[in-house]
Amino acid sequence: MEQLQQLTFVLILALQKLSPALDGLMNFFTFLGKIEFYLLIIPFIYWAVDKRLGFRLLLVLITTDIFASTLKLLFHQPRPYWMGKVLGLGAETSYGIPSSHASDSLAVWGYLAYRLNKKWLWIVISVFVFFIGLSRLYLGVHFLHDVVFGWLLGLFVIWVFIKAEDQVAGWANRQGILSQIGMGFVVSLLVVLIGQLVQVWLSGISDPPEWSSFAVQARTPSYTFTLAGSLFGAIAGYVLMKRYALFEDQGSGLQQLGRYVLGIVLLLVIYTGLDILFGMIAADETTLGYTLRYLRYASVTFLVTFIIPWIFIKIKLARPEVDELGERIVRATTSEQKL
Questions:
Q1: Which of 34, 80, 265, 301 has a CB 3.0–4.6 Å from the CB of 233, allowing a cystine?
Q2: With 60 as the cut, is the pLDDT of residue 68 above it?
Q3: Do residues 274 and 299 touch, judged by C-beta distance below 8 A?
């Protein structure tokens, strides 16, 4: 590990000789790998392009982050700038390996490229994924092996989805609405349980004093509750959308733009409002605070997948999805319904 770190220090120092000229460009690529960017793009795909693809991309993102955040705690390794040998042109509070920017970008955009299967898209996404990873080195926030591990994790998640998604969807579609929602809740609780077990295991291990001051927030369980809540809200919302708000994701460009603008505004208002309200009730790093965090993020993804599409139909920004005979499709537990 030390040899890999030394190799990365040499590489980062070479890259940072180009600072500050490339700071803006590298921060741009880093933004393309942030959760905030995906939360702008994935709802657009879900509301205005292809709801089934958008939902699967959301699950890919959440699943990848669950793996990445768990592995970060298990490995509990530093970031390059924490060790004082390179500049920290960015700041991060979590542990280093694997790079979630690398894993998320490869998993989400790689899955999108796989589904659309366009040669030009493969090329564009490959370039973006590479430069997102490179930006993490340039900014001094990741070692080379962090990024490579992240890419491997992203490939693994894509492989799992390709192999298992049809079987899982087929099983889910044979279940009732309550069974599907209940299973989503159970899986989210398993995510919380695994996170807590990792926290217990890690509590007996101390970080080296030379960089421990940078890692004071690295062991917070809050992100586990964020991801668990997001997963449950996404599953519950999508299941209910198929039954009560199955909408046509196509339409005129004006309709698609209107859906996106209205949806994003509602999303930001609810997210910000819940953040303020729950912050007044309990501090983040408390048991109640973690519970409220779970509820907040479950509410956000539930809003994206169900409430906002329901509003689209009610105000006629989207039509109910219809079959070739013009009949409204009501899909609850039929075996023909696919995710």
A1: 301
A2: yes
A3: yes
User: CA angle 252-254-258, nearest 5°?
Assistant: 120
Tell me whether residue 165 is exposed, middle or buried, using C-beta atoms within 10 angstroms of its C-beta: 0 to 12, 13 to 18, 19 or more.
middle
Single-letter code of the amino acid located at 86: V
Q: What tokens appear for 119 in the block?
A: 């040669």
Contact 199, 219 (CB under 8 A): yes
Of the listed ranges 84-88, 156-160, 278-282, 319-323, the one predicted with least confidence? 319-323
Helix (H, G, I), strand (E, B) or coil at 10: helix
**Res 313: pLDDT:** 94
Give the residue-averaged pLDDT of 248-266: 90
**Is there a cis peptide before residue 98, judged by omega within 30 degrees of 0?**
yes
CB-based contacts of 189, cutoff 8 Å, min separation 6: 228
* Cα–Cα distance, 41 to 26 (Å, whole number): 20
- Contact residues for 22 (Cβ-Cβ < 8 A; gap 6+): 138
- Tell which residue, 243, 244, 61, 251, has the closest CA to residue 154: 61
Cβ proximity of 266 and 308 under 8 Å:
yes
137: enclosing H helix or E strand: helix 119-138
| CA–CA dist 243, 241 (Å, integer) | 5
Sort 123 into a burial class: Cβ within 10 Å, 0-12 / 13-18 / 19+: exposed
Closest CA relative to residue 146, chosen from 131, 136, 155, 161: 136
Q: Which two tokens stand for residue 316?
A: 């006629």
Helix (H, G, I), strand (E, B) or coil at 328: strand
The closest alpha carbon to 241, from 295, 308, 158, belongs to: 308
- Dihedrals φ, ψ of 320, to 5°? -60, 145
Could you check whether the bond before residue 208 is cis, i.e. omega within 30 degrees of 0?
no
Residue 235, phi-psi category: left (phi > 0), alpha (psi -120 to 50), beta (remainder):
alpha
SS3 221: coil
State the DSSP code for 83: G
